[in-house]
Amino acid sequence: MDFIPVKNNKDLIRDPFTHAILNNNSTEHDAYLSNYNRLKKEKEELQQLKKDVSNLSSDMNEIKTLLKLLVKEKNDDN
User: Fold this and answer.
1) From CA 17, how far away is CA 11, in angstroms rounded?
2) pTM of the model
3) Most CB within 10 Å of its CB: which of 14, 39, 46, 57?
């Protein structure tokens, strides 16, 4: 299949059947994929951190409630 060079850009070519423009530069493509995967991993880590903070907050609220209950029970016994 003969691709058509894109004018004024040596790294881009056009598929004559689909008319899609393709990047012919594998170094740029690899860099894009690497960056995409890094950003995806960072996003997943951020979501996990948010989940962990939410769980810790819930745990702290539960501990706080139990401590208040213990203090109330101790005061009621006196």
Assistant:
1) 19
2) 0.64
3) 14
Range of the domain at 13: 4-77
H or E element at residue 14: strand 9-14
Residue type, 70: L
Structural domains in the chain (count): 1
- Laid out side by side, the sheet with 4-6 consists of 4-6, 9-14, 21-23
Measured between alpha carbons, how far is residue 68 from residues 2, 35, 71, 76 in Å?
77, 49, 5, 12
Phi/psi for 17 (5° steps) reads -90, -45
pLDDT digit string, tens, across residues 24-36? 999 988 999 999 9
